[in-house]
Amino acid sequence: MKQYLKYIILSIIFIGVLSPPITCIASEREQEQVKIFQYQNLPDSKDEVTSMLHQKGFIAIQNVIGFKEARDKFFEQQKLFVALPDEVKERCVSQNFCGWAYGKECFEGIQDKSKGSYYANISDPVDKNPWPESLPEFRIAYINLATLIFNTAKEVLSLVGIGKNSELELEQLSATGRMLYYGIPERDDGNNRFWCGEHLDHGLFTGLCPAIYRQGDQIVDEPAEAGLYIKGRKISVPSDVLMFQVGETAELLSNGEITATEHYVKKPLNGAYERFAFALFCAPPNSLYLNPSNKSVIEKYQARLSGGGMTFEQWNAKAFERYYITK
Ligand SMILES: [Fe+2]
């Protein structure tokens, strides 16, 4: 029983770290005019891609081979997964930081009962993820999309050279997928304007698929005020565009040369919408040592760095701790 409780607590912490609680909201400005790179031109756009990541905190890439098909297929399967009976989805809950998690997050101390995730480690050669047996295509679509994003992430990282001055080897990266489902709350949740409050991802690099919105059985346009905001600006891209943003670990590894990207996801002001999304978190090996020497980086992260360097594994643990204390 004690062991079981430990897993529940750790699971809640883990989920929270991937989507930590709101801190402060940057002033919202006009919608960002997003520069979209063509996948086939990436090798010739190294300087522009690099400066985009440094200045805006994200890049948007169109025509990644197979991406649109993989995303469409995945979102079809995601809808089927969400519609599975609760007892079937319950069998996909894991104690090993993967699988289905529903209603585990809080906003300002109030449990968000309409948000679900399916996490999967896609780098582990032994697949320990608790996939739904009755929906085998879900696993295939998930791994296909996640692998495609992971491979593209490594291409971008190789191009821009994040971590080039560290001991980071791109072949050693791992990746965790997160299928996100934002359901319709059973009752009005008051002041919560966000599906996800402002935060920084704590890993290295995050891949993002443009979300799908549904009202009933219809796929509908993203409501004007809702969706992803990066650095306070609304970001809308066509459905065949894959995006990447920078995590805290990249900031630490680059000694502040590149900074982690503040982002949040806003709810529509009116109307009952479901939101379906997918993100992929790329992380370095647990043993990689993070030891920034830049004063402003140390100051920014001093609460977790505790005045010294640490391995990525310890950095993860600190992130969990932070969330747990906040709770
Ligand atoms: Fe995030």
Task: Report what the structure shows.
It is built from nine helices and 17 strands. Strands 1, 2, 3, 6, 7, 9, 10, 13 and 15 form a nine-stranded mixed beta sheet that branches. A four-stranded antiparallel beta sheet has the order 8-14-11-12, with no helix packed on it. The protein has a two-stranded antiparallel sheet with strand order 4-5. The protein is 32% helix and 26% strand. The N terminus and C terminus are likely disordered. The radius of gyration is 19 Å and the shape is globular. The protein has one domain: Sandwich (Jelly Rolls), CATH 2.60.120. The chain has 327 residues and is of the alpha+beta class. The structure holds fe (ii) ion (FE2).
Can you tag this structure with a few keywords?
alpha+beta; disordered N terminus; globular; 327 residues; binds fe (ii) ion; 9 helices; Jelly Rolls; 9-stranded mixed beta sheet
Shape: globular
So what's the oligomer here?
single chain
Order of helices and strands: HEHEHHEEEEHEEEEEEEHEEEHHEH
Number of strands: 17
Q: What is the overall number of helices?
A: 9
Total domain units: 1
What would you say about this model in short?
This protein is of the alpha+beta class and 327 residues long. The chain has helices spanning 2-18, 46-55, 67-82, 86-90, 136-160, 248-253, 295-300, 302-305, 312-326, and strands spanning 36-38, 58-62, 99-102, 105-107, 110-112, 115-121, 174-182, 194-199, 205-215, 218-220, 227-230, 233-234, 241-246, 263-266, 274-283, 289-290, 310-311.
